[in-house]
Amino acid sequence: MFSLFRKIDSVSTKELLKEVQNNIQLIDVRTSNEYQVGHIKQAKNVPLQKIESFKGNFGQEIYVICQSGMRSKQASKILSKKGYQVKNVRGGMNQWSGEVRRGR
């Protein structure tokens, strides 16, 4: 039975820094303007308001990031409910110390 209190796994930005060396599914749920200011190279922009229509690989874990970790947590719950394996990135881009790309 589905519970609103389903536990969402999370990772720190330090852990994500190691993971991005691999071919991971990483989605950034910030607005397109926020994304263009600076994002992680591998991240695909899927703003939170469009997360319901996200189509990803069910066989691969999805890492979800936003600015602080709040919107990504919301998005993670939605994706988890749809059957995806999800990890929320705690602290979001505020805590990210890796390389940042600008633009699209």
UniProtKB/TrEMBL annotation:
InterPro entries given for it?
GlpE_sulfurtransferase, Rhodanese-like_dom, Rhodanese-like_dom_sf
Judging by the UniProt lineage, the source's domain of life is: Bacteria
In this chain the Rhodanese domain maps to 20-101
Query: A Pfam family name for this chain?
Result: Rhodanese
PANTHER family from the xrefs? FAD-DEPENDENT OXIDOREDUCTASE, SULFURTRANSFERASE YTWF-RELATED
- Tell me what this protein is called: Rhodanese-like domain-containing protein
- Taxonomy-wise, where does this protein's organism fall, top ranks first? Bacteria, Bacillati, Bacillota, Bacilli, Lactobacillales
